[in-house]
Amino acid sequence: MAEDNLFKVVYTDSQDFIEQHLVEEASLKATSEKKEAGYWAVIFKRFARNKAAIFGLVCFAILLAATAFANVIAPYNPDEIVGDFLQAPTMAHWLGTDEIGRDVFSRVLYGGQVSMFVGITSVLIYGAIGTTLGLISGFLGGVWDFVIMRLTEVIMSFPYFLVVLVVVGILGPSIWNVTIVIGLFGWAPLCRLVRAEVMKLREADYIQAAVASGYSTWNIAFKQIVPNILSLILVNMTFGISTSIITEASLSFLGVGVVPPTSSWGNLLTAAQSLSVLTMQPWRWVPVGIAIFLAVLSINFIGEGLRGAVEGEI
């Protein structure tokens, strides 16, 4: 009887301990989520006070929406001959026609789809690669750090655009080749940034506590560290979109990127290689030049706004 009572007491105490532990763990998790939500709320408020960043965000949203819904907005099929060749802007063709009678306004909209796709997708590729390798290098250290850093130095030692130009030239011009090559050769700076931040964070008390508690390396890296450096990664990737758009436009302008009849902002600018087009037919290159300018400028404004919000400058 005494043994049964002792067992009941021990069992009850164990149950109370487990319940208390679960309550404390849930409370800590809720507190952590509140802090994280509060952090992002502060970032948003700082960002919202930056007028240039808001202008960039609105401008980029308009450009993105216009290109995304080009099939609805564009009055003509971009590859269809719909008028006289080299026709100046009219009510029927707002930005005139090109050398074979295709509507320039429609081609600018559809070209934006390609340029935006290349810019955003290539950044997602290099963001995934750079973040993962930076985490491995900074958190594990040792041989992993040595190998990844030497690889990063090798990639950064070559001129970025020249390497992309050569590789795309070898593989052949296409949307996917341009996107993948830009993504595969653009991750090195982000990797170094992530590594530096991870090396600082891995010495933090909460990371050491997670290690002592037996959490797996991947759990610590992606659930404890990544949320704390996500804002820096987003800032870097934001600037990367504008760089990728310019890179695609440059490659297409040189004839090794997206090739006609598929339109992109870069290959639409190839018309500007002719002096007669530059001087006598501005509708063929000025609109797409303005589109590239606005896209890059708005993205850079967004990136600067995010950087200032993260660093507390606003």
Sheet with most strands: none
Beta-strand portion reads under 5%
CATH-derived architecture of the largest domain: Orthogonal Bundle
In total, the number of domains comes to 2
CATH top level assignment of the largest domain? Mainly Alpha
Give a count of the beta strands, DSSP E runs of length 2 or more. Answer: 0
- Shape descriptor reads elongated
Distance between the ends: 71 Å
Question: Per CATH, what is the topology of the largest domain?
Answer: MetI-like fold
Give me the Rg, rounded.
Answer: 27 Å
Enumerate the spans where pLDDT stays under 50 for 5 or more consecutive residues.
6-14, 21-34
Helix- and strand-based class? mainly alpha
- Which whole number gives the mean pLDDT? 83
* Total of helices: 13
CATH homologous group name of the largest domain: MetI-like
> Helical proportion?
over 70%
What sequence of helices (H) and strands (E) makes up the elements? HHHHHHHHHHHHH
Q: How does this structure look, described?
A:
There is one protein chain. By secondary structure, this protein is mostly helical. It is 76% helix and 0% strand. It has 13 helices and no strands. The chain has helices spanning 2-48, 51-68, 70-73, 104-140, 142-157, 160-171, 175-184, 188-201, 205-212, 217-253, 265-268, 275-280, 286-311. It has two domains: 1-48; 52-311, MetI-like fold. The radius of gyration is 27 Å and the shape is elongated. The relative contact order is 0.13.
